[in-house]
Amino acid sequence: MSILSLQTTNNRNRLPAFIICTLLAILAERISIPFLYGIPFSLSSLFVLLAVRMFGLRGGLLSAVTAYGSVVFLFHSPGTPILGILEALAAGILLRRYHNKLFFSVLLFWIVIGAPGIYIFYTYHTSFPTSDLKLVVLIIVLNRLFNALLAEILYQHSPLAKWSGMATVSRMPVSLLQLLQQYTLAIVLFSFLLNLFVNNISSFHEVSEYAEEQAETITRTILDEWHRTSSPSDRPVELLLHSLTLQQWIDLNASPTYTISIVNWNHVVVASNNRDLINQIVSPWRGQRLTPVTAEQTLVLPNPTSKLLYMESWHDASFLYSSEFDGNGMILVQTPLSNYQSYLFNKYSIHFAYLFGFALLASCAALLMNRSFARGLRRLASASYNLPLKLKQNNDLRLPDSRIVELHSLMSNIKHMAGSLVYLLQESRKNNERLQAQAQLLQQSEEQLHQLAYYDPLTGLPNRLEFTHQFKDCVALHALGNKSAASCKSLAVVFVDFNRFKHINDTLGHAAGDVLLQQASGRFLTLTSRDCSVFRLGGDEFVFLLAYDDELVLKELAEAICGCFTEPFIIEGMTLFMSLSAGISTYPQDGDTMETIIRNADIAMYNAKEVGGSTYRYYRPGLVSALSEKMLLENGLRRALQEPQFSLHYQPKISAATGLLCGIEALIRWQHPDLGMIPPDKFIPLAEESSFILGIDSWVFREACRQNKAWQDAGLKKICISVNISARHFYQGNLKELVHSVLAETGLDPQYVSIEITEGVFMQNIEKVIETILYLRDIGLKISIDDFGTGYSSLNQLQRLPISDVKLDRSFIQGVNQDVKKSSIVRAIIELVHSMNMRVVAEGVETQDESQFCKELQCDELQGYLFSKPLPATEMEALMGGGGEHI
Fold first, then answer.
1. Which of 42, 287, 585, 676 has the largest count of CB atoms under 10 Å?
2. Which ranges constitute the DSSP H helices of 174-280?
3. pLDDT tens-digit profile of 453-463?
4. 50 and 25 Cβ atoms separated by less than 8 Å
């Protein structure tokens, strides 16, 4: 996000918070609480000062001008709003110097500018006495200081700034003394203002009741005299006739502190102690504001628009008592509120004296608390400053004592921590000494470091880094051209990877895998020469780098690499037959960079893995399309299950003793609509990687049983049919349910079904696998191990397997009559299997010599192309029905 967009987002967040502060300031000014003689108590400056604190000088000043300007325009006098704007301006300026000291800044303003300014302003524009004016100024200053203190507390101890996200001055830590003083003063000020407000109400009622009592006494006296001197029949007409008498009674009861007037119903003053009002038509409420106090008494306030300040109206206010004068008019008693002003102001002056006294006591209490608490913290902070360095220099740690439980616990914890640090420093010194000794040893072992950096610690072979250097050197020599004969040689990278190495780690453990890597590295080293080097890149990945000038040399190296795994590996007393896959890429024919050469050799290696066994493949550009074909096959497996794309071929098994047909193996074939016939070794591994193998096995088992039952129903020989089942069925599938369902559906007798499994089925949860095999064998099925001898622990596990037949892998049968070691291994396996009452099936028999050799070794059954290739169902049926029992 750009800086401009960040500023735009910042301004969008600033506007709502600013508007809220300003509107609250206007609202607070409008609903201000009137105190003594109309002196208002308002919270407007609280929100203006919050705006100053959160949005800085410009934002706060704009909020003050907007809020107070609206007050002047909509409500009343400009005196207080002008001071409010000046207060915001001064606070914003002072905060730039005194960070986090809003109350101090406002206090400084009112001491230097605010209080003297408002005192001078009221002196020249009002008629207040000096004592009253001082009290007015004190109340106004107290109001503003309370707002400033409350604003500072809200900003420092509430999430307002975080909510707005717009604080221009970061909040600094607050000292304990400042915190105590803030809350102590806030409590004192709030209590005083609450008391002042309550006393203001009670004092006003006290004065109004006293004025009403005085007016009632005067009215009762005049009425009594009137009733005493006049007859009831004359009273309606004697009011005007006896006005002089009424005037005399008024003069006798009159006082300069109040005005007594008797008016008729036409509002003509008949008698009054104010001679200017006699014979005048008057209406005491005209042009004034009336506030009823009781049924007879009303508070009369002059129109505030005629006054510069709102409180001046209260200075000229009065209580007006009115009572009917014997049905002939009204008697009015007007008592100026100023009569009680001195009494009220003296009363509030006493309150202010108490306020200052309590504020002083609160400050002293805060100082004492700070002295007993904060001073201990400061001394603790000073003593623990740079504690590790002090402990390292063995300086004495002098921590202060405290009678406060929390401080005492904190100091105890620091002492405990210091002890722990001393122990750690001692251990650190010892470790440093050890490190120095080790550094000296490392300086003496540069050759060992080089060995660790460029050679694999497990096998001792050069690693990937050394391969990179040597490859670059060979490329540089090749670029020199004809400077030497060696520089004209081509480069070849042979990428080697073990097949099923992960299973070794999973079944035998990583220690056995490391031993296998070491033994394989020793065999690879026998193939190195001046022009050929071998490297271990990591895991089970090895790379040969060969400089050659004849393609035959490269071919011989590839065949020699594959031949390294002809002999089995002996690890922890177990015989393991392993295979590898190798991919070959040449420079510069297959790429002009090391990364390209390695990648292409890797692709060729994966192509060799698909072939199986120990084999190698050269990189060809078409291998990339082969990968695409692999993806096409993966995507087509699901459709192949849904559509009739799969079919079964059947390969006979021959009895070695009689030469008669003794069994059939069902083999799946896939007729792809686009790619044609797909051999099983090409799509079965893909199905194994996914979950499609479960569906494929289910289909094969059902179709093989159905076909065998159909042959039996047709009168053909009843023989056992073998079906290959994936190891996934023992872990993820429902093999028991599948067998029950298919046998019940087809009606085939279980004795004519044999399930062929590989040794890989025993790699996981062998107890569960054995339990499943025992169950299947108990219901009549035969169990065979396919490709025996290519697994990881065949002879060790053979004694535990509840099986009936063992099928020797074709790698043992091919050329068995010509290889003495291989023939010895086959003879030993056959004797071992027979000793455990199991039958032996030799698969992959392709020559008459191999067949004769297996018969001599007493193999029970033979299978291979020598007798028959896998046949479709129709051809197999013809073979069985046409006298094919003897093949």
1. 585
2. 176-229, 235-241, 243-253
3. 788 888 889 98
4. no
